[in-house]
Every structure is written in C-alpha cells, then in structure tokens.
Amino acid sequence: MDPMSSYTQMRSHITPIPTPPIVRISVSALVGAAVAVLTTVLAPGVRFGVMAACLAAALLITLAHPYRGQMKTYRIQHNVSVVPTIGQLLPLFLTWLALMIAPLLGGSALWVTVLVWLAVSGWMFVTFPHVDGSRALAFVEKPGRDT
Length: 147
Description:
147 residues
C-alpha cells in the first residue's frame, strides 16, 4: 500500500466547520505568549499572572466564538459525542510540557523568549483544529453513506 495514498485519502476529508482563522491565530499567539512569558526576567508573580491571563483569554476566545455552537449542532445532528477525546488532548501534552519547562529558562535573553513564542505558537496553530475538535468532524460518517 502506498503511504501517499493514505495521506491523500486523509486530506480528501473536508472539515465541514473549519476553525475560523481569527480564532486559530489569536489562540495560538496567546498560548505561545503564555509559555514565552515564563522565560522572561519579569518577577515570578507577574510572569504567572500574565501566563494565566493569556491562557484564560485563549480559552474564552475559543469557547465564546459562534463556530462552537455550529460544531455542537453538527455533532448533535450526526449523533457524535461532544465529550473531548484523547486524540484532542494529546497535542496539548507538548504544550503542557513546555509550560512546565519554560520557568527553567526564566531570565533568558529576548531571542530565547521570541523563539519559544514562535515554536509554541506554531505548534498550536498546526494542532488547534485537532484540539478544538473541528478536524474530527471531517471524518463523521454522513447519513445514508455506505461503509
């Protein structure tokens, strides 16, 4: 079996309700900032306060956007559970690990902070459709479709 045919088949599934770009970009930047701020020379209380504010804002943006309601309606119509799956949580493990390791880099040079922000933001941007569950909707069986 050709590995590219599997990849092509996976990519052929169209996400019915894609994550809006504004949500994907802003949440990615905020999560990246939450991790990156932990590498700065700011006082520990300030660093953790900014981190908590960034993570809270990212969560609020994600949950408050109207596309979440559209996703919920789609899931109900197609009898798909709204409970998060392990596949949605696994990409967050590396982000959690970065949050745990970043304080060890506290007091780093500005370029290290920028590099951490870029790396974490990039990771979140790539994985966010999997984390929020929108990509999984592409693999929901349509009613009346032969399997």
